[in-house]
């Protein structure tokens, strides 16, 4: 009888703590993202524009699939009149702690790189290396280090969620890579905050 109790408890624990499955990517969502990705292939755009379009396309295409906070961050960051540090903050702060901890191998790096006085290249390097984002093989190390740190973090979190749920398709990989690579065009370093100690 006792053995049955422990086995049942273990089974219940495994059931309750398992991640909720993702809703399948609907054909219309996938088609919309594919059309946008194809248009971006031939588009001549200012640096950073394709990253904003990729962010908007992912925010719309992944509705009801990925955490709402991530999608709100992408939607907010796709706006035109936002500077690089605001985009980074909008994206980074929308990653829930539990989601970040599943993706990043050293989750403390987020707090350690949150200051505005730290150059983007240094933030991106620490995030890329300490979270071990190379394991995803989404972009090269050089591309990751040139990226906006918020875009890098959100793209890797989304990639990880989709991959963990065996739900990652080619168009998502492409849009996530564009988000990372072209986010370098959003600007490199934040404006210093005169009230923050250097």
How does the SSE layout of this entry go?
Layout: H1 2-17, H2 27-42, H3 49-61, H4 68-77, H5 84-93, H6 97-103, H7 109-112, H8 120-130, H9 141-146, H10 149-164, H11 170-182
Helix pairs in contact: 2-3, 2-11, 3-4, 3-11, 4-5, 5-10, 8-10, 10-11
Note the main attributes of this structure.
198 residues, mainly alpha
Word description of this protein:
- With 198 residues, the protein is mostly helical.
- The protein has eleven helices and no strands.
- The chain has helices at residues 2-17, 27-42, 49-61, 68-77, 84-93, 97-103, 109-112, 120-130, 141-146, 149-164, 170-182.
- Helix 3 runs antiparallel to helix 11 (170-182), helix 5 (84-93) runs parallel beside helix 10 and helix 8 packs parallel to helix 10 (149-164).
- It is globular, with a radius of gyration of 18 Å.
């Amino acid at each position: 009888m006792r053995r049955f109790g422990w086995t049942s408890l273990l089974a219940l624990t495994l059931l309750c703590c398992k991640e909720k499955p993702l809703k399948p990517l609907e054909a219309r969502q996938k088609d919309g993202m594919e059309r946008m990705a194809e248009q971006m292939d031939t588009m001549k755009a200012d640096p950073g524009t394709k990253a904003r379009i990729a962010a908007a396309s992912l925010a719309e295409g992944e509705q009801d699939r990925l955490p709402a906070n991530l999608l709100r961050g992408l939607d907010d960051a796709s706006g035109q009149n936002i500077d690089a540090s605001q985009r980074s903050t909008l994206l980074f702060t929308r990653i829930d702690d539990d989601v970040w901890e599943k993706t990043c191998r050293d989750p403390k790096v987020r707090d350690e790189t949150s200051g505005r006085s730290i150059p983007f290249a240094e933030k991106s390097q620490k995030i890329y290396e300490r979270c071990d984002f190379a394991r995803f093989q989404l972009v090269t190390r050089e591309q990751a280090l040139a990226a906006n740190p918020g875009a890098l973090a959100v793209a890797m979190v989304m990639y990880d969620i989709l991959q963990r749920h065996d739900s990652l398709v080619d168009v998502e990989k492409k849009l996530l890579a564009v988000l990372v690579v072209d986010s370098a065009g959003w600007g490199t370093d934040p404006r210093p905050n005169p009230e923050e100690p250097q």
